[in-house]
Amino acid sequence: MGYRGAISTVRQDVRRIECEGAGTAPRAASGDAGPRAEFASPSRLAALKLIRPCDRPSEVQQALDALSAGDDSIRCAIESAEEFAVVIRGRRPDALTGWLTRAEGSSASELRTLARELRPDEAALRAGIESPWSNGPVEGRVNRLKLIERSMHRRAGFDLIRARVLDAG
Q1: Rounded Cα distance, 73 and 99, in Å
Q2: With the CA atoms of 10, 13, 18 and 21 taken in that order, what torsion angle do they form, in degrees rounded to the nearest 10?
Q3: CB-facing half-sphere around the CA of 129: CA atoms within 13 A
Q4: Closest CA to 148 of 129, 136, 162
Q5: Could you tell me what percentage of the chain is helix, strand and coil, using 3-state DSSP and rounding each to the nearest 5?
Q6: Pick from 5, 52, 75, 158: most CB atoms within 10 A?
Q7: Is residue 32 classed as helix, strand or coil in its secondary structure?
Q8: What is the pLDDT of residues 49-104, one digit of tens each?
């Protein structure tokens, strides 16, 4: 019928629909780790974990707590991410050095790599935390300009692009 998605997506949906009709839980296919939570991708978990605890839905908090309780290295990584968010949001540059030191000694290789990459730029990071200024509005404008330019895909000269930018205003 022209569907261009992955066959595994179709299999998962068919399995879910069959199980709903039979009133049973979905069975794990060969190679699957079993039913997964809706937010089980690493990027989705990171995004949910960086939401302030007071703003998280209770079921998300319970699932994240269960994940943290399952493995010490995961718990350590999650706590470090929350600490870093507090340093950034709270504009506490004095806590940055301590966080970097703890991250460098972490059991999570990703945290050690992050700390190693941030250490040479610690002064710039500290200045960014302290500064009341943000380059967010400038980045937003640049992003909008690039979007307009990409939408034209080399089919227009400067005059037409300028007119579209000014019109989008």
Answers
A1: 16
A2: -150
A3: 20
A4: 162
A5: 70, 0, 30
A6: 75
A7: coil
A8: 778 888 888 888 888 888 888 788 888 888 898 899 899 989 999 999 999 999 99
Q: Which pTM does this prediction carry?
A: 0.59
User: Cβ atoms within 10 A of the Cβ of 48, count?
Assistant: 15
Q: How many CB atoms lie under 10 A from the CB of residue 31?
A: 6
C-alpha to C-alpha distance for 45 and 38, rounded to whole angstroms: 10
Place of tokens 């794990």: 28
User: Of 127, 47, 58, which Cα lies nearest the Cα of 85?
Assistant: 47
Two structure tokens written together for 10: 């179709």
Structural tokens at position 94: 């004095």
User: Cα separation of 113 and 64, whole Å?
Assistant: 24
Residue identified by tokens 């960086």 is 50
Query: CA–CA separation, 132 vs 141, rounded Å?
Result: 20
